[in-house]
Amino acid sequence: MSFFRTDGVAVVTGAAGGIGLAAANAFAEAGAAAVIFTDIQEDKVKANAEESKSFASNSDYKTAAYYMDVTDPKSVDDVIARVVTEFGRIDYLVNSAGVDTERYVPVPENDMEDYDRVMAVNTKGILITSRAVIKVMEKQEPRTFTKRNGTIRGLGRGVIVNVTSVLSFAAQPGKVAYITSKHAAIGMTKSLAMDVASKGIRVNAICPGWVNTPMHHTELQKIPQIIEFIKRAVPIGRVAEPEEIGENVVALCSPAGTYINGAPIIIDAGLTLTVNL
C-alpha cells in the first residue's frame, strides 16, 4: 500500500533491483498510469515490470521494460523516444542506476579505469538521462491537482529524483571514485533544479544511508565488520529496506512535494547526526 498518490508516467533507471526496483514498484502501488523499468539487465526489468501488474492500483495501469545504458546517449535517447511514442509523455524520472568502486584501496592504488566507470554511471549518467527527459518534459502541458477544498495546485511539467547517498556529504577510506561521484551528483541536482525550475520541472535528490540492496551485500563481503558498525552507529540499529526509500521517491513526486526543489533529502535514520563516516 502506498501512502502517497501519483498518476502520470514514470521512468526509472536501475530498476533491475535495489532502490530502483523499489521506486518503480512504489509508483505502481501509488496509482501511476504507467511505469517504465529500465536497466542494462533486460531480463530482470522485464520480469519486474510484469510482476508490477499484480499490485498496481490504477485500473488502467500500463508498463514496459527496456534495456538502457545510462552512459550511452544514443541508448538513452532511443528509449526516451520510444516511451514518448508509446505513452505520450514523461511525468517522473528517477535516476537510480549506480555502481560502487570495484576495490576499496588508497588513492595511490586507485584504478583510473574504475574511476571513469563509476563517474560515468553515477554522475554522467544522471546528466545524460535528465537531459533527454527534460527535452520531453519542457514541451508537455503542465498538470494540476485538485485539493479537498476544491482549489487547484499546479504540479508542473515533471519531476526528477536523483538517488545519491549520505556519502554525498561524508567520506570513507578507499572509495574515492564512489564518494566523488555522489558529491558531484548533489551539485548536478542543484544545477539542474536551477536551470529548469522556470519550466515547471522540479529536481531533487534522496541520500540514503545503508540499504538492504545487492550493492550493500557486495560491500559486506569486502568489509564484514560493517555489520557491527551499523548496529552501533545507526540509532535504530538496522539498515533501511529498499521500500522505505522508494516510498520517499514517490512522496517527492506527489502533490505533497510541490514546494520541494533542489533539495538533497537525507534518509539515514539519524546516522549522520553524530557519526563521522
TrEMBL record:
GO molecular function: oxidoreductase activity
Keywords assigned by UniProt, alphabetized: NADP, Oxidoreductase
Keyword Oxidoreductase assigned: yes
Cited Pfam families: adh_short_C2
Record carries keyword Isomerase: no
Family: Belongs to the short-chain dehydrogenases/reductases (SDR) family.
Name under which the protein is recorded: Oxidoreductase
Organism for this UniProt entry: Westerdykella ornata
Lineage, highest ranks first: Eukaryota, Fungi, Dikarya, Ascomycota, Pezizomycotina
